Amino acid sequence: MSEAKTLDVAAAYDVWASSYDGYDNPMVYAAGQALSQAPLALAQKTILEFGCGTGRNLEALAASGASNLIGFDFSSAMLAEARKRDGDWTLFQADMSEAIPLQDQSVDFILFSLTLEHVADLVPPLQEASRLLRSGGVIKIIEIHPFLSLNGVSAHFKTADGEEVTMPAFAHPFQDWLVAFDHADLRVTGLKEWQPRDFGTDAPAKILRRGLDWPWVVDWTLSPA
Ligand SMILES: C[S@@+](CC[C@H](N)C(=O)[O-])C[C@H]1O[C@@H](n2cnc3c(N)ncnc32)[C@H](O)[C@@H]1O
To answer: How far is it, in rounded angstroms, from Cα 169 to Cα 156?
Structure first.
């Protein structure tokens, strides 16, 4: 068996971008379910996704009535896929561990979905999210569950040639999250650990292979402290 190739994160997503949306990926399925079942009131709101990738979540949020959609990502190829979805969204290239070029308190709802496993230190992106959030705003974080990441599960894919590609990823146990929320002046208002039993009978086989109780994604809801 050939060895997996490891690329840095942005380079890996540049390669993955064109096939990402069609990939049979149980984590993407689980995160999508978590977002679609969230009780969000986004009509006329400004939405920002950190690490928006191909824009699949922005599309779902637009369908729920959000008026102003903003996303950024450090992979130019993932952003190019997002631009194909909607030319009216504000999309730009940036690294979430650095300062984000948006004004303080300018956003009503911020989403992180399957991106923070690639960030070693949760504090800088969460502090930026906290700075950007308007009073009364909400941050939603849907990420690989620590039980899986601590078991060695992380983002990876196969190219069209069958080559396995891996990239740097960091497991974040619950204590890391709670310490980072504290540093970013954020308060937890909701926590759900999504299990296959939450997804109904249509869940893909890959999701069911660990049984009905094994949590796939952790879903935090946060407000300014
Ligand atoms: C698994 S994809 C998720 C994309 C999208 N959020 C979704 O749920 O489909 C991870 C995305 O995070 C982006 N990403 C990872 N680390 C990042 C960073 N430090 N700054 C900006 N984007 C980052 C990657 O380029 C990739 O597009």
So the answer is: 10
Domain ranges of the chain: 5-224
Residue 46, helix vs strand vs coil: strand
pLDDT at 164: 95
pLDDT of res. 1? 53
Which CATH number, 3.40.30.10, 3.40.50.150, 2.40.50.140, 3.90.420.10, labels domain 5-224? 3.40.50.150
Rounded to two decimals, the pTM is: 0.97
Distance of CA 50 from the midpoint of ligand 1 (Å): 7
Cβ neighbours of 65 (radius 10 Å): 12
Q: Compute the radius of gyration of the chain from its Cα atoms.
A: 17
Return the residue whose CA atom lies nearest to atom 14 of ligand 1.
Answer: 51
Helix (H, G, I), strand (E, B) or coil at 213: coil
Q: How far is the CA of 117 from the centre of ligand 1 (A)?
A: 9
Q: Which residues of the chain have pLDDT under 50?
A: none
Could you identify the residue written with the tokens 């939450």?
198
Residue 158: CA count within 13 A, CB half-sphere: 9
